[in-house]
Batch of 2 targets.
Target 1
Amino acid sequence: MKVVVGLGNPGARYEMTRHNVGFRLVEKLAAQLGADFRNSGSLQCDWARVKVGNADVVLVKPLTYMNLSGQSVQKVLHWYKVDLKAQPGDHSCNLIVAHDDVSLNLGRLRFQKAGGAGGQHGVESIIECLSGNKQFDRLKLGVGPDPGGATRGDYVLSNFPPEQQKIVDEILLHGCEGIKHWLKTDIDKSANRFNALDLCPVEPKIDELK
């Protein structure tokens, strides 16, 4: 069993915000795979179960709000009896978490194996609820550039401007392809294939503006 978690906040108020790109990715992936989300009050999430190749896959959207995402993820892993590692010594992992990353510019994505939370509160909650275990995979979706300081919180909870929507849609499509690749291979192969992707708008050179 593989578990794909997209992080975000529930409710129409947050639906199109930068913080919700994880939700949007698993929603798009479910649509591509012909799966419908169901609600589970006991697991505190919306979930969809699909088959990708030989893999049984559960797509998860925690409904705890971002900062408590780990409560739902821990319950899902327990319910399905999912160990993070496929087997001892195996490079593959059974859990990947897709989330926004303000340190990456919009148009970039990054597959990462294990590591800290990098200030992402949903990932912090997952690590805490897994008793400090950081050994799960991540797909970071760039929403930067980071405005820094006290404005960061408002920034990630704001909507993308209309002129960025095309890039958002494109990076989500690439993210879905990346997750499907991850399901069939592992984090290292997916990182090698997708981490160099850069859909960031090219800034004009100074002499081109003259």
Target 2
Amino acid sequence: MTGSSLTDWRQLHGSHFAGQRVLITGGAGFIGSHLAEVLCRLGTHVVVLDDLCAGHVDNLLPARAHGEVDFVQSSVLDEPALARCTQGCRYVFHQAALGSVPRSVEQPRLYHEVNTTGTLNVLEAARAAGVRRVMFAASSSAYGETVALPKTESIPPQPRSPYAANKVAAEALCLAYSCSYGLDTAPLRYFNIFGPRQSPDNAYAAVIAAFAKAIIAGRRPVIYGDGAQSRDFTFVDNAVHANLLAARHEGTIGGEVLNVACGLRVSVNELAQAMTEMLGRPDLTPRYEPERAGDVKHSLADLSRVSAVLGYKPVVDFERGLRATSKWYRTVLPATHS
């Protein structure tokens, strides 16, 4: 099962992308592979650039079942490969990045190279190829510990980790390229995207993936901090929808940052309770560990700007998305035999 089965993409986006050629950087990863699948369903010729440091070729099987995918195993640091992949593309969906706030604290230089310099390379390739618009996967981590809720795009960024700083720098590059070169860009600030294909198999796994792996294996989910911290958890179909709306937009976006979320605040304690119930293990109460460096306390998106600019509204709500995601993890993760 994939998230795309929850959404009628043809009804939402019609034939706009039919026959178009697009590049998805990081397209074998979690969000990128969902974009690839939906665009293939809509008749798009998809080029994927991915170095497979986090993505998997198998993630592209659903896309290939519906259309043509040209896969190039390379990095956004490989400028000649980027130039080749971008030729003839109408749109670029730049999803490639090193994720994880804690890992960025440990490896700041590597994160800067891939996430910031990599974005510069993508923008340069898009400019040279005459791409119409670049959609960039920005991050709500840009807001840091700003007290105001919900988070509006007018709040000055306060990055608390190298990862967040990378994303803010890349947003600035998008704006600069729109202003200096006329390359239209759309930085989309994702809020805690989750869904099928999000890997639980590393030490920095996102919380929903990490919870699923623990609960299905019969272990108590680990919460860092007191669990009162809250997030605007956003099912992956909403991120795909926002990207497609941004690409289709008839006017100029011009590097304007736009939140992408559900506009609902859920605490990590509430998430743990919901997931243990959905996965049939309400007996597995959370285990608490010290909070991690760089983590923010609360996150909730204001969606008024993205609604006004793109006509965006969530297509799959939190509970429906969490049920679909829990069901997917149950099919792919080994259960305990104790």
